Amino acid sequence: MTDLSASDLATIYAKPTPRVIAKARPEIDVHAKKFIQMSPFCVLATSGSDASVDASPRGGNPGFVHVAGPNQLLMPDRSGNNRIDSFRNIVEGSGLLQLIFFVPGIDETLRVGGKGKLTTDPDLLASMVEFGKPPRVVLSIAVDEVYFHCGKALMRSKLWSADTRVERSVLPSISQMIHDQTSLGEAEPQAVVEERYKTQL
After folding, report:
1. Would you kindly state where each structural domain of the chain is located, as residue ranges?
2. Contact 119, 140 (CB under 8 A)
3. 64, 128 Cβ separation under 8 angstroms
4. What pLDDT digit, counting tens, does each position of 25-70 carry?
5. CA-to-CA distance for 47 and 26, rounded, in angstroms?
6. Which long-range contacts (CB under 8 A, 24 or more apart) does 93-97 make?
7. For the whole model, what pTM was predicted?
8. Smallest Cα–Cα separation from 34: which of 129, 101, 98?
9. Is CATH 2.30.110.10 correct for 14-159?
10. Hey, CA dihedral for 48, 51, 57, 63, is it positive or negative?
């Protein structure tokens, strides 16, 4: 197997159309703002000073990422595993990041690029209480690129189709899988894990 070069790619893929290039906008417009306000889930991608890359799921009630202006987003941080890989990348690396927003039932997604900073401003934390508690920190994102992805990937995957939903019981509990991988902690049933999750949102 031979690794492809940039010139190889040029022979495989046609150049993007002017419309595809032009759809990358420098700020959040009315359509992107509405999409973000409807989105309960996104993926946050960051890169570290050592060239490592991290992608992390983020979720909350629809609109949990706040549109503070045409070039600013505010993302509250909720309880997680405390690895804080994304945040270490932001404070130790370039701060550059990408987000992809999803809205259940809609195949198109929204990609946002920019530079992030972290804050613990008390007034800002107090304004973002969700699930009965304020966030620990807020990620402030200076947005410089926004564009919609077409729905082909989600259409191919049938992500929102009830016919493709998988029963949770086809896998061991997350606790069991991690116990098998690490021999650490207790191997709890999934129902027990989910009940605990509900108190930690």
Report:
1. 14-159, 166-201
2. yes
3. no
4. 999 999 999 999 999 999 999 999 998 899 999 999 999 999 999 9
5. 21
6. 93/46, 93/47, 93/48, 93/49, 94/47, 94/49, 96/46, 96/47, 97/44, 97/45, 97/46, 97/141
7. 0.94
8. 101
9. yes
10. positive
